Amino acid sequence: MSRNPSRGKVNTVGPAGKLAGLAASGPSQRQLRVGEEVRRVLADLFARTEFRDPELVDARITVTEVRLSPDLKHATAFVARLGRSDIDALMPALRRVSPFLRSRMSGNLRLRVVPEIHFQPDTALDYAMEVRALLNQPDVARDLD
After folding, report:
1. Are the beta carbons of 72 and 115 closer than 8 angstroms?
2. Which protein family is named in the record (predicted)?
């Protein structure tokens, strides 16, 4: 005998405005697996592809993380520039080559629909450097000892 789990239950709104009993979950295992595959393919394309865009000709770009939407149709790729921290200057060029990269990815991914790529600068390394600089200040180092 199967029973509908939502029948007879009343959804109530909790203190944070969320439905009680429905916890927000992280990405699914499939999102993580496909995201890592997209990251690997994108990183390979950046390493091997000759771009015609003058801003990207000598740019060494690394893809640090890719997050996928639940339907796997949109991918947010976090990128950093090797050797320099001015990735913001390359964002318009990355948006311009996004359709080209998507078409090149189609041959390397076994997906029905290749996700649309949205680029975001990865600021995690910059943030880590700031925290490290703060921890190395004499006043803070004295407090930590």
Report:
1. yes
2. Belongs to the RbfA family.
What is the number of domains present in the chain? 1
Confidence of residue 29 (pLDDT cuts 50, 70, 90): very high
- Which residues touch 118 (CB under 8 Å, ≥6 apart)? 74, 75, 76, 77, 98
CATH number at residue 84: 3.30.300.20
Whole domain around residue 114: which residue ranges?
Answer: 29-144
- For 67-82, the pLDDT digits (tens) are 999 999 999 999 998 8
pLDDT at res. 18: 52
